[in-house]
Amino acid sequence: MAVSAFQISSPSLVGRKSSIVQMSSTDIIIDAPTPTLDTEGKQLEDPMGLYSPGSEERRDGRVQTNDESEVSKAKAIYDPLGIYPNDSEERQNEQIKASEPDLKVIKAVIDPMNIYSSEEIINDDAIMSEALPFLTRPIILDGSMAGDAGFDPLGFAKTNEDLMNYREAEIKHGRLAMLAAAGWPLSELFDKKIALALHMSPLVDGADRVPSVLNGGLEKVNPFFWMACLVGAAAIDVYGIAKSKSGDESYFPGNLGFDPLGMYPKTEEGQQRMQLAEIKNGRLAMISILGFAIQECVLKSGVIDQSPSFF
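RE: above sequence
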């Protein structure tokens, strides 16, 4: 029988020794490698302690200990099955981490109906909302702004940036509503008189109702008036946006620097009082304008006729 020689090689094995395998009566010489790992000069990590203290790797100093390995210290080990005992080196070095991160409670939990069985999760020190005393005050509403009573039941303001944008919108609508709340009844009082003096057709109807979306009559208003309103509103809005983006530390929502009569107080206490008065009157005006529109639409008469004692 012919003798065959086989060359076996592996890229991961370094150093080979020939061995003879005898099968039946025929010797087949196989050039088979005896695996020897190329671990010389390479540090070995043994987080589970597989190498015994008397092993060649530990005697040669190739097994890296926790004290010598900064990587081992920084690397977290997750042990959901509890394989590592309490006295293990990994637990003593606080390498064993929980399978899930610790939860941080950032919102107080109120339990007026005693739904929670354990009282430990109930925070009795929670700050309640002034506007809605049965709800906790939203975290973002810390009371630093004028008129902040902790009212945000739907949670619109998630960040401080959201809060500033909503305050900008609120102050703009509040100022516009204050102008409208004054202009609405005044127009019903004087529109016919002014139109008669100028030989023009009045805009209010026969029931003394001003033009509105619900009342109708907006088509009687001169288009140039609407154009002037849009241009003026856009100019004010652009100026306000530029002011808010200027990086001025003294800026707050609605602060356009417009005070021709010098009525804005110089003291911080007076400024807070003025800001609070403006935001409260603006909120009341927004409700009033909505009431004017619905009231005239339903009752089919002007507000000056419905409350003549005020006019």
